[in-house]
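ARCHIVE ENTRY
Sequence with per-residue tokens
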Amino acid sequence: MSLPVLSVASELYPLVKTGGLADVAGALPVALAAEGVAMRSLLPGYPRVLAALQGARPVLELGWMFGGPARLLAAEAHGLDLLVLDAPHLYDRPGTPYAGPDGDWADNPQRFAALAQAAARLGFGELPGFQPAVVHAHDWQAGLAPAYLHYWAGGRRRPGTVMTVHNLAFQGQCDVSLLAELGLPPEALSIHGVEYYQSIGFLKAGLKLADRITTVSPSYAAEIRTEAGGMGLAGLLRDRAGAMAGILNGIDTAVWNPADDPALAAAFSAATLDARAANRAALRAALGLADDPRAPVLGIVSRLSWQKGMDAVLAALPTLLSLGMRLAVLGAGDRDLEAGFRAAAEAHPGQVGLFLGYDEALAHRIQAGCDALLVPSRFEPCGLTQLCALRYGALPVVARSGGLADTVVDANEMALAEGWGTGFVFNEASAEALQGALGRVATLWQDQDAWRRLQRNAMGSDVSWTRPARHYAALYRDVAQG
């Protein structure tokens, strides 16, 4: 019999996406089916979600939630079994799931408390015919779900709970005056509950009260237990180290498959690497890069932020250009960094190509057309873009942090001699360290036989969800039995 699990997330690919959380929430249910886990996914009813659903049907009236009526809709889409929180007063808005034209929505605490409350009510069996054995909450937006299941139990049996941290930097905090409005009892306001530095901490609540905690790579699980990486939560995470596990993400290898990707100019595989040249030419043409087969094309598919080390890329740009390299950039983020990349593209036409924003098809084309992908993150819980790069034969150039360190094998001298390596790993997201890595890239580019060997190694890496799904299924069964 399949194990019933409820996944709770604020975004889910392909219905709504702002980052890697959506990719994970969308891919994991499909991968878990092979492991005997029947996962239903709960997400907010944003306009784009409701517009994408066909045949959605009301299954549970939730009553009045934070200023208006709410209900649950059930639907199936893209192979996913969905429950959608239909509350127009909370979610029927323009902009991203979290912000409008003027910044974050002021009622985000209520909007995501509603999501967590709906998850708790499902956990207690309010939807006839569905009783999850485990509720799996993703990131701060779902962080109160374990809290509601803890404080609302009142002697009732509750499901097991798992809290996954995709990025500890985003914690979700609000004023303690909202405690009663959010449906939390007075005793919840303590260090053993939801209180976090004289505020209510959504992520802190989940980390404290969930039965188990996962992060999206083993190295990140270790990093966030240090004062340097813990962002104010290191002590709590050290206390709960016995309940933590680092499980690497995978990617959807059906969506990310260079052998039949409809976004590409030409399909290719590790056995037909020569066909990759057509994608390289198409990328240069799309972003206005000069044609020079002697010049490696480096790619960036990233949020333009300090976390992602994009300031280090700008600082290292003179070295990159002096080595004859081209740079193809897709991303958006901090205004200063956007302005820096825009100025670089204007000052170096034919050498720096830029698309500000996000375009899923272009992301695929960059992975297929660049020779190496830059991922110089200062911290990276897992990272998905380097996994896509491995799959597409774009050698990742990564800082030694979190999941980047766990997924890319450095092509150092010994590795090259033994035929190992899948990319280039450098020690820190500084301009100096990145410049050193670029020098290594330029040197190896001169040996095309060695470069091809690394590409084949990279494309042979298992970046699928098969292994992570096996770990999650074992974790769910352990939690459900507890």
Notes: The chain has a mean pLDDT of 96. The longest helix spans residues 108-123. The chain is about 35% helix and 20% strand.
